[in-house]
Amino acid sequence: MNVDAFGVVVLFVLGLLIGSFTNVLIWRLPRGENIAFPPSHCPNCDHPLSPLDLVPVVSWAALGGKCRYCKAPISPRYPIIELISGVAYAAIALLFPLSSFGTGVIGLCLLFTILLAASVIDFETYTIPDELTLPGTVIGLIFGAVNGAALSPLPHFEAALRGALMGAGVLVAISLLGGWVLRRFRERLYPELPIGYQQIALALFGGVLFGGLWGSWWTALAGGAALGVISTVVNAAARRVIRIPELLTLGGSLLALAFFSARGSISLLTGLQGGLAAAGAISLLAGLYWWIGSRNDTADDDDAPGDPTAMGFGDVKLAAVIGAFLGFERLLVALAVAVVVGAVLGLIQRFTGGENKLKFGPYLAIGAVVALLWGAAIIDAYTAYLGL
């Protein structure tokens, strides 16, 4: 057995084991439970599970889908998730042989695990835990720094950073503009303190201006993000929200892009990239602040008022993960596939009387898998069609 065939077998077994851990993530993260303690136990009788109860797929089948101790039924989702994980890991090893792509293959496997856990949790709870997306983005950047090379399936660090920031930026820009339209262009009633959508919109505006005027992605990122940080510091010092009109930030961003389009495609492109990168950076900073803050906030704010949004913030952070692991171009492929799949399944739900609330995370995950497997070919075909 050569090294690549051996790698397929090893990653299949590893995928089964990681699939078992993925079930732990799916169950515990939405409930705010520690993923390590207490050890695995039956959710019905709380009896600790022995190693014989935890063999992926085999234990469930041997026990007839029931707990050994209280005979309560065990959901078939557990072996299904384990099998999906094992098959996916083996498929990744088959398509990206270890002898050619090295440890970058492990990065792709971790991405799949994040996507799988996020999809199931989003499907069941309409939320995507920060414990998956924010560390996942950092892991993607680390793999880009360590494994990003010509023969790696992962982007190099700078491309991974662009992918993470601009991936989050695309989704949050859709959320900002869509929410503005849903509010009929009225200002937010419930701006966040000290950092939130207002600071993200300001960063978007600053990034568009700096990028279009100076033509530098790094200048646009630094300038736009600095405006968002300054606004946050001012809010924190004042201990109240200093309002920034969206007519200025969002309207100004659209006007600036229209102006730069008249100057030429390069100014328009750098302005757009700069705005998305800066908005993405402040989005991740806001996500980190909300995540840390929520650990110390025991109040139940489920009924707190909020403004209408066009895109969940968990989707924004999931896009950052995908961008960090795959790069911005393949993130765009993932987003396009997600929109098409979501539209088709949404129509099916509507005509079959299903629920109307859209869970975008699973569609974005499907798009990411398509982008991983065929993203490069899709991008090459599209650029060839445009004659680029």
From TrEMBL:
Report which residue ranges the record marks as coiled coil: none
Ribonucleoprotein in keyword set: no
* Prepilin type IV endopeptidase peptidase domain mapped to chain residues: 109-180, 243-347
- Describe the location of the Prepilin peptidase A24 N-terminal domain by residue ranges: 13-95
Which keywords does this chain's UniProt record carry?
Cell membrane, Membrane, Transmembrane, Transmembrane helix
Q: Which domain of life is it from?
A: Bacteria
Check the record and name the InterPro entries matching this protein. Prepilin_IV_endopep_pep, Prepilin_pept_A24_N, Prepilin_peptidase/N-MTase
- UniProt topology in membrane: Multi-pass membrane protein
Q: Where are the transmembrane segments?
A: 6-27, 78-96, 102-120, 132-151, 163-182, 194-214, 220-238, 247-266, 272-292, 331-351, 363-385
Extract the Pfam families matched here: A24_N_bact, Peptidase_A24
**Chief location bin:** membrane
User: Does Transmembrane helix count among this protein's keywords?
Assistant: yes
Give the subcellular location. Answer: Cell membrane
Give the protein family. Answer: Belongs to the peptidase A24 family.
Any idea what this protein is called? Prepilin peptidase
Tell me which species this is from. Deinococcus rubellus
